[in-house]
Amino acid sequence: MTEEIIIAGFGGQGVLSMGKILAYSGIMQDKEVAWFPSYGPEMRGGTANVTVIISDERISSPVLHEFDTAIILNQQSMDKFEETVKPGGVLLYDPNGIVNPPTRTDIQIYTIEGARLAAELGNPKTFNMIILGAFLKVKPLIDMSSLEKGLEKSLPERHHKLIPLNLEAVNKGLESLETVEA
């Protein structure tokens, strides 16, 4: 099993940390992992994306041009990465701010209203964990105990008190995923 994922959005949405947590969680399950971030110099508000590969086998290169899954968090990323999803692959997106939704009919398309759900949880910073939960509903690559260990590894110790809130957000994403009819 090899899963090649692109997570893309604006800096400040937790794109890179979502990828990092996913990568550490894969390591906790003894998987081979690659984490390859890309972001502009402007950071918050600029574009950011990260490639994550989780595999049972050695990974030859983190540089990819097609993906099994694209997690899209803004229109600019939709425009850039919709076409990079392999036929039969998955595109998961938050419709907040998406003016032109995906139009492909050869992939599975899902939505998760992460921004709205994070506001309902009372903490907008849980947005990325809600999105991660939705992804894990579609592709259950990581079990919850490995995810918790991945959070412990990737978050600074001063933020470990937030792990229960993050796990609650993941569960909210697992419960709230919607399929888009093509």
Structure report:
With 182 residues, the chain is of the alpha/beta class. Helices cover 36% and strands 26% of the residues. The protein has helices spanning 15-28, 75-81, 114-121, 127-138, 144-154, 163-176, and strands at 2-10, 32-39, 47-55, 67-72, 85-93, 108-111, 178-179. Strands 2-3-1-4-5-6-7 form a 7-stranded mixed beta sheet, with helices on both faces. β2 and β3 form a beta hairpin. α1 packs across α5 (144-154), α3 (114-121) packs across α4 and α4 (127-138) crosses α6. The protein starts with a strand and ends with a strand.
Topology diagram in text:
Layout: E1 2-10, H1 15-28, E2 32-39, E3 47-55, E4 67-72, H2 75-81, E5 85-93, E6 108-111, H3 114-121, H4 127-138, H5 144-154, H6 163-176, E7 178-179
Parallel strand pairs: 1-4, 4-5, 5-6
Antiparallel strand pairs: 1-3, 2-3, 6-7
Helix pairs in contact: 1-5, 3-4, 4-6
Properties at a glance:
6 helices, 182 residues, Pyruvate-ferredoxin Oxidoreductase, domain 3, seven-stranded mixed β-sheet, alpha/beta
Short description:
This protein has helices spanning 15-28, 75-81, 114-121, 127-138, 144-154, 163-176; strands spanning 2-10, 32-39, 47-55, 67-72, 85-93, 108-111, 178-179. The protein has 182 residues and is an alpha/beta fold.
